[in-house]
Specification:
This protein has one domain. About 80% of the residues lie in helices and about 0% in strands. The chain is built from 13 helices and no strands. Helix 5 packs parallel to helix 13. The radius of gyration is 18 Å and the shape is globular.
Length: about 290
């Protein structure tokens, strides 16, 4: 049963990138509605099951969760924008460097990093240079997309670390409700400031936004949250790396994206490097996919 759930989860997170890339709404609006719809689903559940906990959240808990929501908003703003500028394969692989960013941040905070982990990070970094080098030859637009995806991974790492600390004293339901809600509010303010169109889309665009929410949040995030309770975080982290080839295949089939062979060579290096990092146990703090 866990294998079936893992396959469903991989399909969910793999479909996220191609769906957002193929949805006709602006990147910021997609990020906004994805989080707003997820919050709308969570609020009734939280009100029914966690009302007392939510009522007694401390200012410190609210501040920590709000900061995590800010990092999540920055993650979505950069990553969804990247999907509009570069290939889904490149953007997905580069944002998955979140695992490596978590390790590097931990090292800066004084955590010991083994030699094998350093080797894995070096291999992944080589893959980044290969992908970016190929995209430079394609267009400046693609390179900007690559840089936004790398930034998205960095913001995702901060979100993961902040969320891990906040969840030590909060239930998953309360945390995700407050975090997604604050993320949606921040993205709403960003859309208003930037003049981003948030409504008036055709029906197929709204369908794409709903599909992203269902695939990423219900079939992806929720499934892996469950799996983390029954199988090793290392195994979950390794399974999550299947998002990269999964997204590339779906983008090729449904969006007719066929990146140059050099991009796929870089993706292989990134995946091998991240697999080394995960197997050495350095990425066990990655709790669930956020894409």
């Amino acid at each position: 049963m866990n294998v079936v759930l893992a396959l469903v989860g991989v399909f969910g997170v793999s479909a996220s990138g191609p769906l957002m890339a193929g949805t006709g709404a602006p990147a910021l609006a997609i990020a906004l509605w994805r989080n707003a719809l997820a919050t709308a689903v969570l609020v009734p559940l939280a009100a029914a099951t966690r009302r007392t906990e939510l009522r007694w959240l401390s200012r410190r808990q609210l501040a920590a969760t709000g900061l995590a929501g800010l990092m999540l908003a920055a993650h979505f703003a950069t990553w969804v924008s990247a999907l509009k500028l570069t290939s889904v394969a490149s953007a997905t692989a580069l944002v998955c460097l979140q695992v490596a960013w978590v390790v590097l941040i931990g090292r800066l905070r004084g955590q010991v990093v083994g030699r094998a982990v350093v080797v894995g990070l070096a291999v992944s970094l080589a893959g980044v240079f290969v992908v970016s080098g190929v995209d430079v030859g394609l267009s400046t637009r693609a390179l900007v997309g690559d840089l936004l995806a790398v930034a998205g991974g960095l913001f995702g790492a901060f979100y993961t670390l902040l969320g891990s600390a906040a969840r030590q004293s909060m239930s998953t339901t309360s945390y995700t409700t407050v975090c997604y809600g604050s993320c949606a509010l921040i993205l709403l303010a960003t859309c208003l400031v930037t003049g981003t169109s948030m409504t008036g889309y055709p029906a197929d665009t709204w369908l794409g936004i709903v599909a992203v929410t269902v695939a990423a949040q219900l079939l992806g995030h929720s499934v892996f949250n469950h799996l983390l309770a029954v199988i090793s975080p290392t195994v979950v982290s390794l399974v999550l790396l299947l998002e990269v080839p999964g997204a590339a295949v779906l983008a090729a089939v449904f969006l007719q994206q066929d990146p140059p062979a050099g991009v796929f060579a870089g993706l292989v290096l990134i995946l091998v490097g991240l697999a080394i990092v995960v197997l050495r146990g350095a990425a066990s703090t990655i709790e669930a996919p956020i894409d």
